[in-house]
Amino acid sequence: MCLLFSMLHAMGIAGAAEPYEIVTHPGVSEKTLSRGSLRAIFGMRQYAWPDGTAVKVFVMPDDAPLHAAFSKEKLNVFPYQLRSAWDRLVFSGTGQAPETVASPEEMLARVASTPGAIGYLTKSRMDGRVNVLQVK
């Protein structure tokens, strides 16, 4: 049992992940969001914030540990399920997939500089350039 836990921990499957937050561009007036709205935004079904500003979604690559944690914990779906939903939108011509960023640094820069942007970052990567969005 100890060997199995050690292997899983080394692979990043077990153990506590670094704390993270959902972040938005400073111009987004929303401070809290329902889980349903968060799922709609990241499912690419909600296109605008309540004030009418277009939503721009940024995500990490499908295989990034932070993306997996966010998908499972905040959206209650596996990353492959998100990708499947996005692919259906793209291939049917009815929507777009979110924009994928290569690193936490790029996530911070893109969310901070794109009006209406939303993404997620570990707390250690955050600075005053983005707002934290609470999910209720």
Protein topology:
Elements: H1 2-11, E1 20-24, E2 32-33, H2 35-42, E3 56-59, H3 65-74, H4 79-92, E4 99-100, H5 104-113, E5 117-122, E6 131-135
Parallel strand pairs: 2-6, 3-4, 3-5
Antiparallel strand pairs: 1-5, 1-6
Give the distance, in angstroms, between the N- and C-terminal Cα atoms. 37 Å
- Radius of gyration computed on alpha carbons: 15 Å
The level of helicity is: 25-40%
- Sheet with most strands: 6 strands, mixed
CATH architecture: 3-Layer(aba) Sandwich
Describe the global form: globular
| Tally of domains | 1
CATH secondary-structure class? Alpha Beta
Low-pLDDT residue spans: 1-16
Structure overview:
The protein has 136 residues and is of the alpha/beta class. It has one domain: Periplasmic binding protein-like II (D-Maltodextrin-Binding Protein, domain 2, 3-Layer(aba) Sandwich), CATH 3.40.190.10. Helices cover 38% and strands 18% of the residues. It contains 5 helices and 6 strands, in the order H-E-E-H-E-H-H-E-H-E-E. Strands 2-6-1-5-3-4 form a 6-stranded mixed beta sheet, with helices on both faces. The radius of gyration is 15 Å and the shape is globular. The termini are far apart. The model is unreliable at 1-16 (pLDDT under 50).
Structure summarized in a few sentences:
Helices cover 38% and strands 18% of the residues. It has 136 residues and is α/β, with parallel strands linked by helices.
